[in-house]
Amino acid sequence: MKKTGKLWVIGGTGDSVDAVKHIVKHSFPCIVTVTTPTASDLYPTLSNLSIQIGKLDKKEIQQLCTQETVKGIIDASHPFAINISQQVIEFAQTENIPYLRYERPSLKINSQAIYLDSFEHLLEGNYLENKRVLLTVGCQALSRFKSCHEKLVLYARILPKLESLKMALNAGFSESKIIALRPPITLELERSLWQQWQIDLVVTKASGKQGGEDIKLTVAKELGIPLIVIKRPLIQYPKQTEQMSDIIEFCYQCFQGVNHV
């Protein structure tokens, strides 16, 4: 089967790396988009794989799909990266390009955790008052807590990137309240950090096992520390899967001209 055009993988996560490796193993030409140079280093160097770095707006999405003759889109972005997913879904439906969402498996509801629908619900409630709180929610969300520093002790764990550090500092976190670590975080290290900072409460996102949610649940149970989990945003994906095998089947269908939008 002659493969003209490319598959577009929206990347930047460990999930997308796995997806890309499976796709190129089956000899499909592929372009993956990531937002940072650091994320691009996660992918293998192969002749049938190209990488584009930078955030995309609607016009740039159109240009990418036209220039690369995109036959299908595999959205393997982070579960909380809703803006790119929503834009691509709208574009794919308008242009009749097959779209598949790879959604990393969710963990089952755990009685050890408190599950909230959004950061707004967290901040509107009385969950954080007079607590020593560890935030493992990503640097993008830290600005939401800027007004909270006078009321409680806040710590933030971020990725070891200059951009992330700047965002944490701008959100009011002092250097002594920031730790920069790249996942995965081991159970022993997670436990030690909570103990060292005498944490009373941890806030995380429902990022699944890939995001270390399972380890946080274990440590929370061991230490008797409440864990608040912000649920994933609700997006109506046209088609989604948790199976890598479905991605490969989707790739074959894209190059056979089967419409899966």
Automatic annotation (TrEMBL):
Keywords: Cobalamin biosynthesis, Oxidoreductase
GO molecular function, one term: precorrin-6A reductase activity
Any GO BP annotation: cobalamin biosynthetic process
Superkingdom in the source lineage: Bacteria
Protein name (record): Precorrin-6x reductase
Database matches in PROSITE patterns: COBK_CBIJ (PS51014)
E.C. designation(s): 1.3.1.54
Presence of the UniProt keyword Oxidoreductase in the record: yes
InterPro entries (UniProt xref): Precorrin-6x_reduct
Pathway the protein acts in: Cofactor biosynthesis; adenosylcobalamin biosynthesis
Originating species: Crocosphaera chwakensis CCY0110
Transmembrane stretches, start-end: none
Key word DNA damage present: no
